[in-house]
Amino acid sequence: MRFAVPVFPGSNCDTDCVKAVRDVLDQPVDLVWHQEKRLDSYDAIILPGGFSYGDYLRTGALARFSPVMESVQEAAEKGKLVLGICNGFQVLLEAGLLPGAMRVNDHLKFRCDIQPLQVVNNRLPFTLDYTEGETIRLPIAHGEGNYYCDPDTLQQLRERGQIAFRYEGENPNGSVGAIAGIVNERGNVLGLMPHPERAVHQWMGSADGAKMLTSMLRYWGESHGAA
Amino acid sequence: MYKATINVQLKSSVLDPQGSAVKGSLHSLGFEEVENVRIGKTIQVWLDTGDAAAARKQVEEMCQKLLANPVIENYDYQLEEGA
């Protein structure tokens, strides 16, 4: 399974994503500059965290028009796995690959912490190795993670099992429905504010993020007849 | 040449944490009359065209594609000639 990690000007979690894929899965993974137009040879794309284009205008708004995003759109349409973490999630929202929008945290602070999350849906390509309702711990680090969608969209997300992760305990940013991560209708595009790539070894404080990567590999193996 | 002054505001149904914080500070300064504060942004764009209709059409497109996020924001703008 081949992974691509697009790098936008201002991405800063790109290398963490590459290391996580290598450490946990031992699968090939390449950093890809945002002007790259062809991602055909990759099976999964991870949009990393950071501050693409300095987060000017709105988070993710400018990155959404980078040449690489057209290939990400195509990959998503083909059913390939697309994982957007933190700023990557914001880019997916701006690109319209996921519904809703991101607002400034309701308390206006940048929140950096280890956050408990509930696995709401474990039947997704990204959550197969978790159990439903399981509490996991992942780091968060964001100032604009306050996910918003209108009540109809929220209802739809709930009914169609598109809520992948929800914050447990205190909601760290004020997001609607305490949403931490959602998928598209097809389930092959996941956006989440917490950082699974920063929680793949016990010495990092949690290894709970590793299962997200092993789930992706398992899904890919099952849908391709081999890992 | 036309200058477009674009005003982007969060929709009134969307909580504006910055506005709420500024309202609190205005209250603590003694401006008790302040009932609500909303913070938006102003974007100025200069267009090299003499055609007002064309400029208007372009500004509209810019707002819809990039300058505002229609999920949470509204926008309006004014066009000035020769500014």
From TrEMBL, chain A:
EC number in record = 6.3.5.3, 3.5.1.2
Q: Which reaction does it catalyse?
A: N(2)-formyl-N(1)-(5-phospho-beta-D-ribosyl)glycinamide + L-glutamine + ATP + H2O = 2-formamido-N(1)-(5-O-phospho-beta-D-ribosyl)acetamidine + L-glutamate + ADP + phosphate + H(+); L-glutamine + H2O = L-glutamate + NH4(+)
Specify the pathway. Answer: Purine metabolism; IMP biosynthesis via de novo pathway; 5-amino-1-(5-phospho-D-ribosyl)imidazole from N(2)-formyl-N(1)-(5-phospho-D-ribosyl)glycinamide: step 1/2
Catalytic-site annotation from UniProt = 86, 195, 197
Q: Which CDD domains match?
A: GATase1_FGAR_AT
One GO molecular-function annotation for this sequence?
phosphoribosylformylglycinamidine synthase activity
- Localization per record: Cytoplasm
Sorted alphabetically, which InterPro entries does this protein's record hold? Class_I_gatase-like, PRibForGlyAmidine_synth_PurQ
Main localisation: cytoplasm
Protein keywords: ATP-binding, Cytoplasm, Glutamine amidotransferase, Hydrolase, Ligase, Nucleotide-binding, Purine biosynthesis
SMART domains in the record: GATase_5 (SM01211)
What subunit structure does UniProt give? Answer: Part of the FGAM synthase complex composed of 1 PurL, 1 PurQ and 2 PurS subunits.
* Biological role stated in the UniProt entry: Part of the phosphoribosylformylglycinamidine synthase complex involved in the purines biosynthetic pathway. Catalyzes the ATP-dependent conversion of formylglycinamide ribonucleotide (FGAR) and glutamine to yield formylglycinamidine ribonucleotide (FGAM) and glutamate. The FGAM synthase complex is composed of three subunits. PurQ produces an ammonia molecule by converting glutamine to glutamate. PurL transfers the ammonia molecule to FGAR to form FGAM in an ATP-dependent manner.
Q: What is this protein called?
A: Phosphoribosylformylglycinamidine synthase subunit PurQ
Native organism is Desmospora profundinema
The gene that this protein is the product of is purQ
From TrEMBL, chain B:
Alphabetical UniProt keywords: ATP-binding, Cytoplasm, Ligase, Nucleotide-binding, Purine biosynthesis
Spell out where the chain crosses the membrane.
none
Q: What is its EC number?
A: 6.3.5.3
Cellular compartment(s): Cytoplasm
Q: Which InterPro entries match?
A: PurS, PurS-like_sf
Q: In which pathway does this enzyme or protein participate?
A: Purine metabolism; IMP biosynthesis via de novo pathway; 5-amino-1-(5-phospho-D-ribosyl)imidazole from N(2)-formyl-N(1)-(5-phospho-D-ribosyl)glycinamide: step 1/2
Q: Which GO terms describe its molecular function?
A: phosphoribosylformylglycinamidine synthase activity
Functionally, this protein is described as follows: Part of the phosphoribosylformylglycinamidine synthase complex involved in the purines biosynthetic pathway. Catalyzes the ATP-dependent conversion of formylglycinamide ribonucleotide (FGAR) and glutamine to yield formylglycinamidine ribonucleotide (FGAM) and glutamate. The FGAM synthase complex is composed of three subunits. PurQ produces an ammonia molecule by converting glutamine to glutamate. PurL transfers the ammonia molecule to FGAR to form FGAM in an ATP-dependent manner.
Outline the subunit composition: Part of the FGAM synthase complex composed of 1 PurL, 1 PurQ and 2 PurS subunits.
This protein is called what?
Phosphoribosylformylglycinamidine synthase subunit PurS
The gene for this chain is purS
